[in-house]
Design goal:
Elements (H helix, E strand, L loop, with lengths): L5 E5 L4 H5 L12 H17 L7 E4 L3 H11 L7 E2 L16 H7 L1 H4 L17 H14 L4 E5 L1 H12 L3 H5 L8 E5 L2 E5 L2
Parallel strand pairs: 1-4, 2-3, 2-4
Antiparallel strand pairs: 1-5, 5-6
């Protein structure tokens, strides 16, 4: 399916990002660096787009994405609608844990898994297919170009679906903070400061 242009951003750095803690649907506040990254996103959007006219605007309803949206608003007229489909993966019982803690308490969760594959199928959490379904649902609902602030893992799937990647390719995508992903014509480019 061909999707409209999407301007996609991950939230800024959080306290738990620094600590190496999983967040999922839990939340921790942005660090000072994360707040700067959010403002930088606003400056990039102002420079590259000038205005949000013609774009539908979305944000995950979790605190770190709302805080990032507030930083963007300091430099760019951004009025996003909250959409639960953009929420990060629900990590169930491993939410809020470091990888070491997961290895100690749920060794089967990380055994033999690459990169962030261990985030999926956690006890009480979402599967890869669960996150794929809601990512695809969000993409399929778009009728106009869109600007969105979301998260790392769900962002990989949204970007991967858009670009026609397979599961392994999606999971190997980076999840940088402070950059803008431009999804257009089934390809991804970046805007940065």
């Amino acid at each position: 399916m061909d999707y409209p242009r999407i301007i996609f951003m991950r939230h800024g750095e959080t306290e738990w990002n620094l600590e190496g803690r999983t967040q999922g649907i839990l939340n921790s506040p942005l660090t000072a660096k994360g707040k700067q990254q959010a403002e930088q996103l606003g400056l990039i959007l102002k420079h590259e787009l000038g205005t949000a006219n013609g774009y539908d605007q979305f944000v995950s309803p979790l605190g770190r994405t709302l805080e990032t949206a507030d930083g963007i608003k300091r430099h760019f007229a951004f009025s996003p609608n909250e959409d639960k489909r953009l929420m990060e993966i629900n990590l169930g019982q491993i939410g809020g844990m470091t990888r070491y803690e997961v290895e100690m308490e749920y060794p089967e969760q990380v055994a033999g898994k690459k990169r962030y594959e261990w985030y999926f199928d956690a006890p009480g959490g979402e599967t890869f297919d669960d996150v794929m379904d809601r990512s695809k649902s969000w993409l399929d609902s778009l009728t106009s170009p869109a600007i969105a602030v979301s998260h790392g893992q769900v962002g990989k799937l949204i970007r991967g679906i858009y670009c026609g990647l397979n599961k392994e390719q999606m999971l190997n995508l980076g999840e940088p903070q402070g950059v803008v992903h431009v999804l257009e014509n089934r390809a991804e480019t970046f805007w940065s400061a």
